[in-house]
TrEMBL record:
The keyword Transmembrane helix applies. GO terms for molecular function: ATP binding; ATP hydrolysis activity; calmodulin binding; P-type calcium transporter activity. Its main location: membrane. Residues 124-219 form the P-type ATPase A domain. It is found in: Membrane. It comes from Kingdonia uniflora. Belongs to the cation transport ATPase (P-type) (TC 3.A.3) family. Type IIB subfamily. The chain crosses the membrane at residues 240-261, 281-311. This is P-type ATPase A domain-containing protein. Keywords: Calmodulin-binding, Ion transport, Magnesium, Membrane, Translocase, Transmembrane, Transmembrane helix, Transport. Pfam families: Cation_ATPase, E1-E2_ATPase. It catalyses: Ca(2+)(in) + ATP + H2O = Ca(2+)(out) + ADP + phosphate + H(+). Gene3D superfamilies: Calcium-transporting ATPase, cytoplasmic domain N (3.40.1110.10), Calcium-transporting ATPase, cytoplasmic transduction domain A (2.70.150.10), Calcium-transporting ATPase, transmembrane domain (1.20.1110.10), HAD superfamily/HAD-like (3.40.50.1000). PROSITE patterns: ATPASE_E1_E2.
Length: 710
């Protein structure tokens, strides 16, 4: 017995050694592949500043996994996640990884400077020396363990450690209004974004100018005052005129002096000089200077200014505000337009576009009251659909003045509630007829929203909606063409997934709705996860503004290339681009990560063919605009948020759309306007902006789209 015991102990010991050796081998392999700089190693760290920053900025899960996740990154940053950074190490960390200060252009006076300092005085809760404390965001260092809550501004790039129900608003970087779910599978947090919901503890991996926000700010410090095409031409004309004037002035002076000297010689007065002779020479110099002065067309700048002022007045009549006169001229020379999608080409308002219910696919496009759907289904099915819409949501319907209703919630939830109201549903009556027992909001892990409600008669009902692949697995019945609940057969399942695929091909956001009536024995302790009846498949889209397609075609006919650059996914971007007429045969649609991975030579080969760029970052947009300008293009860029600022700053013409988020974009007006490029649309969306482009034969006109599609 004792021998057996010691034999078992020996086997366990050998197994532990083998496991330890394997881990050391794997870890050694990683370390062999990656070696930090000598300075970093001497400071006691295991990863360079740029490398740890790139993991978050590139959302590089592969490299993060190679470092054994956030715990491995923490080890390489010499920090314990439970205790945080030691205060004594702060100077060393700032020396190696930098501080959390952003370098921008200096304020014009000391008082704006004080206001800027007060604005940046944001406090952040961190764990240091083993306990929680609050520090200014400028004191954050790489390795800090920061605690963020709903509404907090994310002050640095970092990696998710743990959190709860975390939603991040990345619209300031991507321009997309949909919140991003951050968790262990998508653990990257970027500076400049905000916590829309939930809470998170994160490991700071980059601060200051090393963050994504810092890189964005750095682009605003690049470049100088560029001249508009007209200014270049006027300078050329002025230079030529000045040269001719100088030549004629010199020749005139030479001729007059020659004549003067010849006359002096003929009258034998060459050696006799009088005061009148000096006066004559002075007059000759004055004549030469006068010729130089009158050669310069001093009336030309005034004439140009008056013509641009007239053009600005005409544009203002089209509900557009020109911030700098030179923008009027530059617009007439545009050869390329880089436009955003969300809010510019589209209405920035999600709507239900198609519904599959009772084995019928119903399109709601152009149907203002949903009458075709109400006539296609029975009253009982419509009642259950309205119950599922109004009960299973986090959004609210708010009564406004004049009896108008407004919806508060995420774009998707708002679209569903608008759809329910369109069908004649009563949000408040639906909420009052039952009591919420349990509610599970949408998170990326579950991909569904569920609710359990009880009625006065003691019965329970459960509703669930979410991703098709999740909801279908929870269902064993389906509503057939007659409105009855029947078993979900294999044939029915194939039919449903065919509908889902058809909706997906149209770039619709797809949700499946299901419900379950609970029997009298149900105790109401938890929301059921099976036994549901599939009710409907709903497709939601962000519709294109009226008139956009005609405007794009007019641009193309005028010789102007239109490119769409968006932070949305590639499939939606392609569908919208085809609908607008932007993506043509031979055109290229590319994703931002793929674009930024190309070499400069590959970029030069691809850029002329690029018509759509999806999943683009602000720096991707900036890079594209920079290369287009190097090709000799006069580039116009439309934007409505902070994410568009680098491209607006680099473009020849910046168009700040007065639709959504313009006030954020205008935070940088001082920087952009110094380059005489920003033209801001007024409070109302632009209805029509005529831009004239001169050609060899005639003047072409194209319209930029607005709310009314003019």
């Amino acid at each position: 017995m004792i021998a057996a015991y010691f034999g078992l102990q020996e086997k366990i010991r050998v197994a532990l050694y083998v496991q330890k050796a394997a881990l050391q081998f794997i870890d050694g392999g990683i370390r062999q592949r990656y070696t930090p700089s000598i300075k970093v190693r001497e400071a006691g760290f295991g990863i360079d500043m740029n490398d740890v920053a790139a993991i978050v900025q590139k959302r590089d899960n592969k490299t993060l996994s190679a470092f054994k996740g956030v715990e491995g990154i923490a080890r390489n940053l010499s920090v314990l996640l439970e205790k945080g950074v030691e205060t004594s190490e702060l100077p060393k960390r700032e020396e190696i990884y930098g501080n959390n200060h952003f370098i921008g252009k200096l304020p014009k006076c000391f008082w704006f400077k004080d206001l800027d300092r007060e604005k940046k005085n944001i406090l952040v809760k961190v764990t240091r020396d083993g306990y929680s404390q609050t520090v200014p965001k400028t004191d954050l260092v790489v390795g800090d363990v920061a605690h963020l809550f709903t509404g907090d501004y994310i002050p640095a790039d970092g990696i998710y450690i743990y959190g709860s129900m975390l939603l991040i608003d990345e619209s300031s970087l991507t321009g997309e209004s949909d919140p991003v779910h951050v968790n262990r599978h998508n653990p990257f947090l970027l500076s400049g974004t905000t916590v829309q919901d939930g809470k998170v503890v994160m490991l700071v991996t980059a601060v200051g100018m090393s963050t994504e926000w810092g890189r964005l700010m750095d682009t605003l410090n690049e470049g100088g005052d560029d001249e508009t095409p007209l200014q270049v031409k006027l300078n050329g004309v002025t230079t030529i005129i000045a040269k001719f004037g100088l030549v004629f002035a010199f020749l005139s002076f030479v001729v007059l002096m020659t004549r003067f000297l010849v006359e002096k010689t003929l009258h034998n007065e060459f050696r006799k000089w009088f005061a009148s002779d000096a006066l004559d020479i002075l007059n000759y110099i004055a004549i030469a200077v006068t010729l130089v002065v009158i050669a310069v067309p001093e009336g030309l700048p005034l004439a140009v200014t008056l013509s641009l002022a007239y053009a600005m007045k005409k544009i203002m009549n089209d509900k557009a505000l020109v911030m700098h006169l030179s923008a009027c001229e530059a617009m007439g020379s545009a050869s390329c337009i880089c436009t955003d999608k969300t809010g510019t080409l589209t209405t920035s308002h999600m709507v239900v576009d198609k519904v599959w219910i009772c084995e019928k696919s119903i399109s709601l496009s152009g149907n203002s009251n949903g009458g075709n759907l109400k006539s296609a289904v029975s009253k009982s099915v419509l009642t259950v659909l309205l119950q599922s819409i109004f009960k299973n949501t986090n959004a609210e319907v708010v009564k406004g003045k004049g009896g108008k209703h407004s919806v508060l919630g995420t774009p998707t939830e708002s679209a569903l509630l608008d759809f329910g109201l369109l069908l004649g549903g009563d949000f408040f009556a639906q909420r009052q007829e039952s009591r919420t027992v349990m509610f599970e909001p949408f998170i990326s892990d579950r991909k569904k929203t569920s609710i359990l409600v009880s009625f006065p008669d003691g019965l329970y009902q459960a509703f669930c909606n979410g991703a098709p692949e999740v909801i279908v697995k929870m269902c064993d019945k389906i509503i057939d063409g007659s409105g009855s609940s029947v078993p979900l057969s294999e044939a029915e399942l194939v039919n449903v997934m065919g509908v889902v695929n058809a909706f997906a091909c149209e770039a619709l956001r797809i949700l499946c709705f299901a419900f379950r009536d609970m029997n009298e024995s149900f105790d109401g302790r938890q929301i059921p996860v099976e036994g549901y009846t599939l009710l409907a498949v709903i497709g939601i889209k962000n519709p294109v503004r009226p008139g956009v397609k005609n405007a794009v075609q007019t641009c193309i006919a005028a010789g102007i290339t239109v490119r769409m650059i968006t932070g949305d996914n590639i499939h939606t971007a392609i569908a919208i681009a085809k609908e607008c007429g932007i993506l043509t045969d031979g055109g290229l649609a590319i994703e931002g990560p793929d674009f930024r991975s190309k070499t400069p030579q590959e970029m030069n080969d691809l850029i002329p063919r690029i018509q759509v760029m999806a999943r683009s970052s602000p720096l991707d947009k900036h890079t594209l605009v920079t290369h287009l300008r190097k090709f000799g293009e006069v580039v116009a860029v439309t934007g409505d948020g902070t994410n568009d600022v680098p491209a607006l700053h680099e473009a020849d013409i910046g168009l700040a759309m007065g639709i959504a988020g313009t006030e954020v974009c205008l935070t940088f007006v001082g920087l952009v306007s110094k380059r005489d490029r920003l033209k801001q649309f007024g409070e109302r969306p632009i209805e029509r902006l005529k831009i004239h482009r001169k050609s060899s034969s005639k003047k072409k006109t194209y319209n930029m789209p607005g709310d009314d599609g003019a």
